[in-house]
């Protein structure tokens, strides 16, 4: 059974939701038969990378809140993160466009490093307060995971995987997804937001039950019908 998860690397609730979903999945009895696909979603594709700008001031300006309001929001999400073992550092974050990071994620899928790359990118943005649009930093991150640094540099200096990122976002729009994280179980059941682990656990159980109920049933028939198998044998 497939589970597609749309998220943005800049989104704190996406990291929290990832942890809560993982906690449900680890106890799911059929977890070995689950395939998780990470889908890209840019909350603000037009955002300009500005590592020199103070994150709190930027947040205050764009959310139209004062410093007390910004601090309250940061403290709230940081407390939520702490509950799932994450040490967020929101106030020191870097204002960065996430397209290059999403492109790296698609490259990592091809190389077999999707899960570790997704985790590393979220940590870089939300815990380590690093610039996820800095190509040299992304290369170092990829090499630490096990990817070829020269190949990653070549990819980042091209337009490769931009199309794939846009296709993920187009798919999200077609599904009516306008916020992240968003989880789609078995291409049928959607869950929005960083829900409690119990909600994810129940959804997994329900989706798995439906998934198996809706499998093709072979009807008992006579032996007169001919057929061919995958080896090319026909009878």
Automatic annotation (TrEMBL):
Domain DSBA-like thioredoxin: 3-204
A Pfam entry, by short name: DSBA
InterPro entries attached to this UniProt entry: DSBA-like_thioredoxin_dom (IPR001853), Thioredoxin-like_sf (IPR036249)
Entry GO MF terms: oxidoreductase activity
Chain coiled-coil ranges: none
Listed name of the protein: DSBA oxidoreductase
Organism (species): Cellulophaga algicola (strain DSM 14237 / IC166 / ACAM 630)
Lineage: Bacteria, Pseudomonadati, Bacteroidota, Flavobacteriia, Flavobacteriales
């Amino acid at each position: 059974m497939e589970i597609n998860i749309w998220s943005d690397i800049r989104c704190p609730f996406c990291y929290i939701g990832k942890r809560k979903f993982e906690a449900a999945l680890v106890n799911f009895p059929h977890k070995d038969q689950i395939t998780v696909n990470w889908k890209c979603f840019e909350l603000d594709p037009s955002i300009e990378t500005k590592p020199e700008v103070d994150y709190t001031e930027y947040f205050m300006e764009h959310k139209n809140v004062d410093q007390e309001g910004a601090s309250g929001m940061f403290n709230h999400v940081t407390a939520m993160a702490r509950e799932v073992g994450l040490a967020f550092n929101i106030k020191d974050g870097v204002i960065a466009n996430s397209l290059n990071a999403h492109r790296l994620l698609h490259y990592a899928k091809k190389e077999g490093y999707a899960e570790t790359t997704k985790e590393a990118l979220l940590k870089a943005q939300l815990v380590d307060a690093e610039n996820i649009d800095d190509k040299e930093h992304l290369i170092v991150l990829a090499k630490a995971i096990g990817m070829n640094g020269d190949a990653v540099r070549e990819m980042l200096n091209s337009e490769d995987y931009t199309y794939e990122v846009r296709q993920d976002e187009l798919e999200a729009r077609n599904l009516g997804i306008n916020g992240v994280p968003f989880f789609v179980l078995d291409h049928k059941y959607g869950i929005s937001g960083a829900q409690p682990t119990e909600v994810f656990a129940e959804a997994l159980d329900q989706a798995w039950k439906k998934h198996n109920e809706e499998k093709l049933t072979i009807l008992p028939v006579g032996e007169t019908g001919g057929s061919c198998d995958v080896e090319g044998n026909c009878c």
